[in-house]
UniProtKB/TrEMBL annotation:
<dbReference type="Pfam" id="PF01925">
    <property type="entry name" value="TauE"/>
</dbReference>
<feature type="transmembrane region" description="Helical">
    <location>
        <begin position="7"/>
        <end position="36"/>
    </location>
</feature>
<dbReference type="InterPro" id="IPR002781">
    <property type="entry name" value="TM_pro_TauE-like"/>
</dbReference>
<protein>
    <recommendedName>
        <fullName>Probable membrane transporter protein</fullName>
    </recommendedName>
</protein>
<feature type="transmembrane region" description="Helical">
    <location>
        <begin position="155"/>
        <end position="174"/>
    </location>
</feature>
<dbReference type="GO" id="GO:0005886">
    <property type="term" value="C:plasma membrane"/>
</dbReference>
<keyword id="KW-0813">Transport</keyword>
<feature type="transmembrane region" description="Helical">
    <location>
        <begin position="75"/>
        <end position="93"/>
    </location>
</feature>
<feature type="transmembrane region" description="Helical">
    <location>
        <begin position="231"/>
        <end position="250"/>
    </location>
</feature>
<keyword id="KW-0812">Transmembrane</keyword>
<feature type="transmembrane region" description="Helical">
    <location>
        <begin position="203"/>
        <end position="224"/>
    </location>
</feature>
<dbReference type="InterPro" id="IPR052017">
    <property type="entry name" value="TSUP"/>
</dbReference>
<feature type="transmembrane region" description="Helical">
    <location>
        <begin position="99"/>
        <end position="119"/>
    </location>
</feature>
<keyword id="KW-1003">Cell membrane</keyword>
<comment type="similarity">
    <text>Belongs to the 4-toluene sulfonate uptake permease (TSUP) (TC 2.A.102) family.</text>
</comment>
<keyword id="KW-1133">Transmembrane helix</keyword>
<keyword id="KW-0472">Membrane</keyword>
């Protein structure tokens, strides 16, 4: 591992943290960059989770200080999410680099569309919260799927959580976001442990990425207040198109 590699990942962390704070989708930057830096796909996936775990814990602390803390519901949704994340992480590790890269590229393109369209705004309606036994069972099942996806790739999982909770329970966006960060922190730990126990984490690069994330999040917060997220979305779309194309080998077909 060279100093250039570490610096590259640190810078990628700044960009990812910035993007994640302003518009979401930071893993669409950091995960491909880890792969392009030479890490096997499974190691890149596990290493990316070091920064995501730190980010989740910071977000949990913020929401708790603001009084948005729902431990019973978080644990209720967190348990199936943990089970799903373990299955998803093990599945991710079992895939070949080529197969994972192809799946990642397709997921990146799909999440890019979600970021542009923002379908969650159609789900967030002024409804009364509904926690009937049937809806809670549906939420638990949905969060097993959320956990599986989070353990597998993670990128863009926030959009899935918002859509699921808004459709099933009718909760407000603030409450959904608080539950999102708590549940994400719970299943992120379990999925990270799967990668750690499988020897699929580069701790030096993971910590460099986490440090960059922190700086990027701080800069992104200031930027969002003054500039909004329009240009960040343009940057993210272009970046995703380029990196997903590289993961799919389009550059080779074009002779680059």
């Amino acid at each position: 591992m060279s100093e250039i590699q570490i610096l590259l990942i640190f810078v990628a962390g700044i960009v990812a943290g910035f993007v994640n704070t302003v518009g979401g989708g930071g893993s669409l930057i950091s995960l491909p960059v880890l792969i392009f830096a030479g890490l096997p796909s499974a190691v890149a996936n596990g290493t990316n989770r070091v920064a995501l775990m730190v980010q989740s814990l910071v977000a949990v602390g913020y929401f708790r200080r603001k009084g948005f803390f729902y431990p019973k519901l978080s644990i209720f949704l967190g348990v199936p999410a943990v089970l799903g994340s373990i299955v998803g992480a093990r599945f991710a590790i079992s895939l070949s680099d080529e197969m994972f890269n192809q799946v990642l590229a397709m997921v990146m393109l799909l999440v890019m569309v979600l970021i542009i369209v923002r379908p969650e705004k159609y789900f967030l309606k002024a409804e009364v919260e509904n926690f009937t036994p049937l809806r809670l069972a549906a939420a638990a099942l949905a969060f097993f799927g959320v956990g599986f996806y989070g353990g597998f790739i993670q990128a863009g999982v926030g959009f899935i959580i918002i859509a699921a909770l808004a459709l099933i329970t009718g909760m407000s966006l603030v409450k959904i976001n608080s539950l999102k960060v708590f549940v994400t922190a719970i299943y992120m730990l379990s999925s990270l442990l799967v990668f750690v126990l499988s020897g699929k984490v580069d701790w030096i690069l993971g910590l460099a990425l986490a440090a960059g994330n922190g700086i990027g999040a701080y800069l992104g917060s200031a930027f969002a207040v003054h500039k909004g997220d329009k240009w960040i979305r343009v940057f993210l779309v272009v970046s995703v198109l380029v990196m997903s194309g590289k993961l799919l080998g389009v550059h080779k077909l074009l002779g680059f």
